[in-house]
Amino acid sequence: MAKIKHNNFIDTVDEVLSGAKEEGILHLYAEDHFLTGRTIQIKGKEMFHFGTTGYLGLEQDFRLKEAAIAAIQNYGTQFPLSKSYISHPLYNELEQKIGLMYGIPPIITKNSTLGHLAVIPTLIRDEDAVIMDHQVHWSVQNACQLLKLRGIPVEMIRHSNLEMLENKIKQLTSRCNRIWYMADGVYSMFGDYAPISELLALTQKYPRLNLYFDDVHGMSWKGKNGTGFVFDAIKELPENCIVVSTLSKTFGASGATVFCRNQKLRDKIKNFGGPLTFSAQLEPASVAAAIASADIHLSPEIELRQKDLADKISCFNQLLAQGNLPIISKNDSPVFFLGMGTPVTAYNFVQRLFKEGFFLNLGIYPAVPIKNTGIRITLSSHNQQQDISALAEAMEFHFPKALEETNNSENKIRQAFGIDSRKADKITESKEQELFIEEKNTIQDIEKSEWDEYMGKQNIFDWDGMAYLEKTFSRHPDPTNQWDFYYYTVKDNKDNIILMTFFTYGLWKDDMLATESVSIHLEEIRKINPLYLTSKVLSMGSLFTEGKHCFINQQHPLVEKALKLLLDKVEEKYNALNADMLVLRDFDEGNNYNKTILDQGYFKIDMPESCEVQSQIWNSNEEFANGLSPRSRKHFNKEIEPYEKYYDVKIKDKLSKSEIERAYQLYGNVKDNNYAINTFRYTQEVFENMNDSQNWEFILLALKTEIENPFVGIMFCYKNNTHTYVPELIGMDYEWAKKYQLYRQLLFQTIKRASALQFQKIDFGVSASFEKRKLGARVIPKVAYVQARDNYAMELMNTLQNDYKSIAK
Description:
Residues 631-773 form the BioF2-like acetyltransferase domain. This protein is of the alpha+beta class. The protein has 4 domains: 31-55 and 302-417, Aspartate Aminotransferase, domain 1 (Alpha-Beta Complex); 62-297, Aspartate Aminotransferase, domain 2 (3-Layer(aba) Sandwich); 435-606 and 785-808, 3-Layer(aba) Sandwich (Aminopeptidase), CATH 3.40.630.30; 611-782, Gcn5-related N-acetyltransferase (GNAT) (Aminopeptidase). It contains 28 helices and 27 strands. The protein is globular and about 90 Å long.
């Protein structure tokens, strides 16, 4: 299989978060000598604190502080022993009081992350299966990774998509004993709720379905005795439901709690629940603070605290309702999310609010999709009414200013989040009428000489090449081979072209750039469901082309404005098409527009490396070899040149009907054996149209030793005027590939043909860069920029890649 450099999800996350850190928004330090909860000091400035998750403010309650201090005096800073042996003196009292709160005995863990690691591998049996909401907390997803090592199916659905959940349940019911759906009670970014009643109804419809909730953000501010959102919704814990809650965040102490109705299961988790058995227990100070908090939760005071916070939430909602800010998921939770759309707008807004004296949290990828960047605002009992009113006023004032300064609009944000859908902003020219953008839907409407001057020297997308692509893929009856074409030109008011490019719209496989093992697994599923894990993508260039898909006049003084105008226009098209993903490719790794593109709501991923040969005219194999490095020359003399004698090499402009069928068969061999870049199989019509075009030719290799056999290898080559020779596709008979070094010979014969035709360069495509480098190719790192409606497909691919890496180890 051809090898490529696969994108690392962690690298993408690191780049996004590093950008936010450079803007002075993440990885900050509080500088206070004394914390009150109402304010926080950062970089010498005191700000009102609207970023806490201690919603009831109990972490500053004097009773919790005094209890913690007394516990340290009486029992020390820690009790360094596993709970399996003995718990320190305060543990029993805490367990009794938590049991009174919930009416059911708890399991207490060091924190919720360790709680999930203790419970999930013990709870889930080898004959079970798991379905995760793709926005369920990372700690749950991380614990589920351990299940995959045991061969337990772990599936993922889009956020709160009950139709998708039911389909997964139906698929798993016949082969699994129990199916566990894992979700948050209150989601930490948008503050939206799990659809509890609908999920309970599904458990009645499907008896194998069980529910597992992480309700750490629903704790204390909701429910009788502050038992949380989930318990408030379900009233009494059923046998088929597990709830993980917390003693930190709103509870004001440290630790987490696990609740299950089954006594036998509860004992099993306590007896062998990983971190419960082998990790240290909570410190005495934490347990003492939790006991003091439990006393508050068991008293009428908790209702007064809940009402006080509810009044503040209601006040903030009323203030926001007077304006028109795009608040996501309006409800009565203390978590609010103000949509910003692009990171640069969010950076601008946060910095403005910092200056006004308000600390807010940034919500950015991967916590939310990159185009769903926004501001998370959390209310707590520490916030006073005048603070809340001042914040609402500051938000209304600075929101439009942040949009204006970052080339954004409220309409774009609402479209990105799918709220209050309105007609898109019309984008035809810049406000100053300095720039104009044209959109065409066919190359026939673009002057050939103009297109070829700016775009025509690249790959197969000169004017004739685009005509071939349109003939082949436009209005194709097969949806996997059907593309729409969009051509964009940006000009200044003197009709000078600043930018020119083209986009295609069609179906992509979500695993196109995943590792081979993932694609092999998914292709088995696609034998039954051909469109499984596919997305509608609006992409610069096409799946048939690679290289510089965008001409940019870097010397023009308005070049950056021109690029932003293009990004606005294609985003408008992306929304009109309701595509799942928007992709800009293939930019050089060190391009000048990285920040401009990232600021408009894209994240960057590594693409497969591109290979290019600057063609030189040579007249003999020896002359070619002398132009290689000593190491490559040795490779050529040993593994390529000696095998040339075994082949009859023919160059054909036209193939017979039987030859086209044979060529398509050989192409299929390669397609079925190479998942490095997993795209849909092209139909035979693609190759028949090559045969009808004067720009295509075919390099055929037949074995001299097998006279009766047809050709065993073929390279499908495009001739781009006299500029670029493009070996676009390859076909091979694998019976002979290894013995006669067929692949390497096809590469060499391609270089030889380009030299004979005196082409300036060869676009050698992507994948197998190691082999191509040996023949003198220059390897060029490439990147793409991506927007997506949600993170579901990308997170799922990352999860699957991690699965197969673990299995391989």
